[in-house]
Automatic annotation (TrEMBL):
Organism of derivation: Candidatus Nealsonbacteria bacterium CG08_land_8_20_14_0_20_36_22
Keywords on record: Oxidoreductase
MF annotations from Gene Ontology: iron-sulfur cluster binding; oxidoreductase activity
Pfam families hit by this protein: Oxidored_q6 (PF01058)
PANTHER family found in the cross-reference section: COENZYME F420-REDUCING HYDROGENASE, GAMMA SUBUNIT (PTHR42845), F420-NON-REDUCING HYDROGENASE VHU SUBUNIT G (PTHR42845:SF2)
Listed name of the protein: NADH:ubiquinone oxidoreductase-like 20kDa subunit domain-containing protein
Top-level lineage group: Bacteria
Domain NADH:ubiquinone oxidoreductase-like 20kDa subunit: 15-148
InterPro entries assigned to the protein according to its UniProt record, in alphabetical order: Hydrogenase_assoc-protein, NADH_UbQ_OxRdtase-like_20kDa, NiFe_Hase_small_N_sf
Segments crossing the lipid bilayer: none
Length: 248
């Protein structure tokens, strides 16, 4: 009998939403677990840090604390494939707003008097270790996790098709499209795969899955500038850590 691939799902500093959506899969997630040997998943059970080689390490969250960095570097050494889960790990995410707004100012806003809070710059996982594959989103799309996990279990690195969110949006080409209504939406420059869940629920896309590769967004940003001031566009790009990737 062939040995099952050892899998660890670890969380750095995070809201753990990307792990929770895996549990939302219910039976399908437990069917996935039958195909692998799960050696760590802190959301289900606190277990000692896994020893020895791993097939896949799924990593959620930001490497912020010294302990996060220790865990990240250790798991990288152990894992054949390291996959980052979600916008925080991949693009800095919501915590990265602190960098844009000034980390000292932000921490004083939250902790008015408390001193000595660890307050490093927020940096994505790939600033510290090699990342083999990224599952984007805030949170990740759990069905996409199952889809790409099939290849990852076989030791293959999948490729996510470079299509925009608009390609999955029911409002594409219709009067109900946010852009046609002169309301901002980052769908045209954002990587598809979430089934345009925000637009379907009457929210515009703020790009949590990150920009498409090899695009030049300047033309699109000029369109946005007809609807929003430069400052407002910058604020929009801050939400999911895009401001350092897309220069206005
Ligand atoms: S990407 Fe979103 S859901 Fe996932 S850990 Fe970060 S904030 Fe939470
Ligand atoms: S994602 Fe946004 S811009 Fe794209 S079609 Fe849908 S509403 Fe329009
Ligand atoms: S529509 Fe945009 S903001 Fe919403 S989940 Fe998809 S990529 Fe993220």
């Amino acid at each position: 009998m062939t040995k099952k691939v050892k899998v660890a799902i670890v969380s750095l500093t995070a809201c753990e939403g990307c792990q929770i959506v895996l549990l939302d899969l219910g039976k399908k997630f437990f069917d996935f677990l039958k195909k692998v040997e799960l050696v760590d998943f802190g959301l289900i059970e606190e277990t000692p840090f896994p020893k020895g080689k791993l097939g896949i390490a799924f990593v959620e969250g930001n490497p912020i604390t010294k302990e996060d960095l220790r865990v990240l570097k250790k798991i990288r050494k152990q894992a054949k494939i390291l996959v980052v889960l979600g916008n925080c790990a991949a693009l800095g995410g919501i915590p990265e707003m602190k960098n844009y707004q000034g980390k000292e100012k932000t921490i004083r806003y939250i902790y008015k008097t408390l001193k000595n809070i660890v307050n490093p710059e927020i940096k994505e996982v790939d600033n510290f270790v090699k990342v083999d594959f990224t599952l984007p989103g805030c949170p990740i799309t759990n069905t996409e996790f199952l889809k790409y996990a099939k290849d990852l279990i076989k030791g293959k690195i999948p490729k996510i098709p470079q299509k925009p969110v608009c390609s999955e949006c029911p409002f594409w080409g219709k009067e109900t499209c946010f852009l046609r209504k002169k309301e901002p939406c980052l769908g045209p420059i954002t990587l598809a795969g979430c089934q345009a869940v925000c637009a379907k629920n009457n929210f515009s896309c703020y790009g949590c899955r990150g920009p498409l590769k090899n695009i030049k967004p300047q033309g699109f940003l000029k369109t946005l500038e007809k609807m929003r001031s430069k400052e407002e566009i910058e604020d929009d790009l801050e939400i999911f850590g895009l401001k350092d990737m897309i220069k206005i």
